[in-house]
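To whoever picks this up:

The nightly regression suite flagged Accessory protein NosL as changed. Nothing in the input moved, so I suspect the structure step. Input below, exactly as stored in the fixture:
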Amino acid sequence: MRFKILNLVSIFLTATLIGCGEVQPERLTVGEIKCSHCSMNIVDMRFHTQLITYKGKRYHFDAIECMDQFQKEKNLEIQNIWVSNYLNPKEFLTKDKAIIIHSKKIRSPMGAGLAAFKTHEDSAQFQ
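Regenerated output under the current build:
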């Protein structure tokens, strides 16, 4: 009987610890998912943005402006937001550490011209 209880406790602890790891952004294939706000296919990965709630629900967006509008409309407890680095779309940056600029030189999917960069130097040529 003790052996069964010990097994159940160890299984529970293992499952709990696995679920406590740091949450990371998901990699997508172009066109695989639609934007959670506007329902357009996410095809330009330079603008891909992700939001995850504390309950673990993940939302994908085709542009930063879609995520901003979605966030204003919903009352979500947000755990993290990631934005794609415009110059390296395979790299995600946390929104609070990214340099987000508005520029007429940038043609984002929804037309607002918002893009995220890792440094101010990277964004200089677009300002």
